[in-house]
Amino acid sequence: MTTCPFNPADDGAETAFDGRMSYGDYLRIDQILDAQHMLTTAHDEMLFIIQHQTSELWMRLALHELDAARRAIAEGRAPEAFKMLSRISRIFEQLNNAWDVLRTMTPSDYTHFRDDLGQSSGFQSWQYRLIEYAVGNRNLAMLRPHAHRTDLTARLEAELARPTLYDEALRHLARSGLPVPQDILTRDLRQPWVSHDGVLAAWEIVYRDPATHWQAYELAEKLVDFEDYFRRWRFNHVTTVERVIGFKRGTGGTSGVAYLRRMLDVQLFPELWQLRTTL
Questions:
Q1: Cα 92 to Cα 81: distance, rounded to the nearest angstrom
Q2: Contact 196, 270 (CB under 8 A)
């Protein structure tokens, strides 16, 4: 039996776009697809560029969600933040999956264009730095790679002046009547988080009676979900780097795998992990 090809216009689909906005116009597809400028003829350089560009797009969305989630928690709308926090975890699931694609590039493949990258490195991603600052890893030394850009320094400094996601969570606990220590609520926001016994005690109250403190309990688990995916992202980063370049120094001058392994020990919400032992 011969059938005529289906014409979408017969079903009402729009097919004429002279002077009208199309899918490509709305998403600016031409600009996106024109952003892959290879420096070499190496086949795998395209993979390398697209993997990092798409990761930056996912990080942009993560920052959008983090901004909204913190505002929602601060304004007493914690349940609205839960959806955003769940979405951030899913975003990091996508970022984790991206490493699987990049790992199809072998060490031999990478040698064909690695030297052409100069000093550029993912270590210098300002969006990743903003994410780390937003969730609590406020290492002031990491401002230096961005000092050549006053606009980026201003954004990072603005982030350092704002409560982290964890700070907002603890302020939410305090407003709910839980005994969060005052020195935590008034701490210097620019400084990295340091594990605090009083914060651990407050979270233990929540976890010993979830029914009474259900909203705080759900918030805590959303934070743990995020850090779980974030840790996996860091681990996959280490594994991918070791698989592709071994223990060479990174293009940005770091010690490579050794540096990334140190990052695995950084905990964003340490009390939420510690209480699993103390309960």
A1: 17
A2: no
User: Residue 127 class from Cβ within 10 Å (0-12 exposed, 13-18 middle, 19+ buried)?
Assistant: middle
Phi-psi domain of 76 (left: phi exceeds 0; alpha: psi -120 through 50; beta: other) = left
Under a CB-based contact definition with an 8 Å cutoff, are residues 260 and 241 in contact?
Answer: yes
Read off the tokens for 192. 């990295």
Structure tokens that stand for 167 in this block: 């700070």
Is the Cβ–Cβ distance between 215 and 78 less than 8 Å? yes
Domain 44-278's class?
Answer: mainly alpha
Query: For residues 155 and 126, is the Cβ–Cβ distance under 8 A?
Result: yes
Q: Are 132 and 156 in contact (CB under 8 A)?
A: no
pLDDT in tens, 142-187: 899 999 999 999 999 999 999 999 999 999 999 999 999 999 999 9
The residues spanned by each domain of the chain are 44-278
Q: What whole-number distance in Å separates Cα of residue 152 and Cα of residue 158?
A: 10
Q: What is the DSSP letter of 192?
A: P
CA 229 – CA 95 distance, rounded (Å): 9
The alpha helices in 103-250, defined as continuous H runs, are 107-111, 126-135, 150-160, 165-175, 182-185, 197-208, 214-245
Name the 3-class secondary structure at 250: coil
